[in-house]
Amino acid sequence: MMKKSLSIVACFLLLGICQAQDESFKYLNQPVPNDTPKIFMKGVAERITISNDFKEIYFNDDEGVSYYKYSKNNWNGPFKLFKGFHCPALSPDNKTLFLQDNKPEAWYAIKNGDDWNAPVKFWNDPLTKHYLQETNFGHYYLSYDLTGPVHGNISKIISNKSDTMVQSLGKPINSPDNGIDFFVARDESYIIFVCHPGGVNGDLFISFHKIDGTWSAPENLGSLIDTPAWEWGPYVTADNKYLFFTRGTSATDIHIYWVQINTLIDRLKKNE
Asked: Which of 114, 193, 229, 238 has the smallest C-beta neighbourhood within 10 Å, fewest atoms?
């Protein structure tokens, strides 16, 4: 009976190791984190987006958007993709890559086979736009009409046959303390965004989409994620398991971190 119990325990341990290895290959063969953030990429300007099959990882560096590609059982890259653009975000079907220039203005590129067509402007509107994203419902979200580098209205684009309008998500998400950076879940169930109370540093908060269409009061993601440094550039993987974000203490000390987030999201949602 004892030998049988030990065999069962050994099987579970081996299963856990195999699962960790399976997870690791998706992320440049790096050991996956728990609820304590780890550095994923050193010295990268900010932001990341990952394909649904976990075989393409896009990010922006000092020159523009670059990417890694998994093929023939190896990660290859980084390869330069679009110089002068940043803030990459893949559409739910991974056939469109949303981008941003330095004005900032929203652009997009269409995938043609294994290659990307040249970026084109998303919308001829004179006001500034930041970090355009698309959800599973075909809705678009962005920060609109920015005030300086850290203030803007997180908004939803409302389109019909005759007009395109921008609808601010309003309070409690948009407040004097909110920043321009955010990530909206593909199913629109939550938004993770940057707040900097009193203009001091930037922390990541989460707000949940309620049944009545409003958003819950923002909750801080906690001291393991939010530190005295600036945190921004949130992105959550398609399986809602890992949060990637950028942390910086100075212009020369900026890295992309990642952390397991699904358990924390579930726990915070229960508090609503």
From this structure: 114
Convert the pLDDT of each residue in 185-208 to its tens digit.
999 999 999 988 766 678 999 999
Helices and strands, counts by H and E, the chain: 2, 21
> Domain residues for 213?
38-270
Q: Is residue 9 part of a domain?
A: no
What single DSSP character describes residue 198?
Answer: G
Answer whether residue 256 shows pLDDT above 90. Answer: yes
E strands present in 24-114: 38-42, 46-50, 56-60, 64-71, 74-83, 86-90, 96-100, 106-112
Q: Is residue 32 in a domain?
A: no
One-letter identity of residue 245: F
Is residue 142 situated within a structural domain?
A: yes
Please tell me the distance from the alpha carbon of residue 266 to that of residue 4, in angstroms, as a whole number: 35
